[in-house]
Amino acid sequence: MLRILCVRFSSIGDVLLTTPLVRALHRRHPEAELYFVTKQAMAPLVIENPHLTRVIALDPHERITDLARRLQTLGPTHGLDLHGSLRSAALRLLVPCRWSTYSKRKLARTALISTKISLYGRHVPVPERYFDAPRAAGLDVKPDGGPPEFFLAPAARERAAAWLAERGLDQQPLAALAPGAAHATKRWPIQHWQDLTERLRQLGYGLVALGGSGDRELANALGAGVVNAAGEFTLQETGACLARAAVLVSGDTGVMHMATGVGTRVVALFGPTVERFGFFPYTKRAIVLERDLSCRPCSAMGTERCPLGHHRCLEELLPDQVAAAVQRLVA
Questions:
Q1: Residue 201 to residues 28, 99, 210, 221: CA-CA distances in angstroms?
Q2: Coil, helix or strand for 288?
Q3: Does 134 score more than 90 pLDDT?
Q4: CA–CA separation, 25 vs 33, rounded Å?
Q5: Looking at the 3D structure of the chain, how many domains does it have?
Q6: pTM given for the model
Q7: By C-alpha distance, which of 37, 32, 41 is closest to 68?
Q8: What pLDDT digit, counting tens, does each position of 210-231 carry?
């Protein structure tokens, strides 16, 4: 029997973008046991996934050798390293089975950032690059073109529904906003967010801001008409809130991929990063807004300040453009 380890420790978007591969593996090999190995904090993203046999979580203080012993007891036949980190490399040494991985295209990414010359060749989104790993291991699977999947527990849906109802957000179409990002150059200017919220209110939307506890202060600045849920929800509950929204407006963040995973439409604002990196929303129910500037891309994951000091990539994405994109997407 096939027993396959799918290893991706973090982060939110990266984990969810593995789920098209998980779906394809289950459909092609329904008899196989599929185990997803990730950090404990990321486990809620895949814990309800019906294609998986079990999720195996790395505890925050657990040694990689202890995790390896747990994995050895499963008797895996194949290991898919979908992370390419020191931890996952250690598992490849410690857990005997047929291991394979995929290319992160780091050289092409670095060349594009530093010289603006693309070495990527044919564009392949990251969810499809993950399929290189099973192919290298002799597992015949192909992408089906479908989006990521974020399966939700009934309790998460119930809690999100009750929370929104208590605040009167079940009485009108809901627009979710994700203003946060780990790095400043990925954040849309706060004045633009404030102008957008006014336009969305005029269009009849109720507004909720989502994100982690570190985004709470930023979400508070969006305006009095925005209900601040940043830091209020678990990952599962955030997904349930997104599932009730008609649309999400977001930068290049994990919340964006959570929305695609629950089938919610997305208007994504991209600044320092570009499509060639492979992390655009992997769904047809999305519009990406970006500026065609000679300085893009300027970094792989964003930085604390614009290298040229102007931040035009996001400054020049205007609220009227975003509001129009929302209308086109939801119409």
A1: 46, 52, 17, 16
A2: strand
A3: yes
A4: 10
A5: 2
A6: 0.97
A7: 37
A8: 999 999 999 999 988 999 999 9
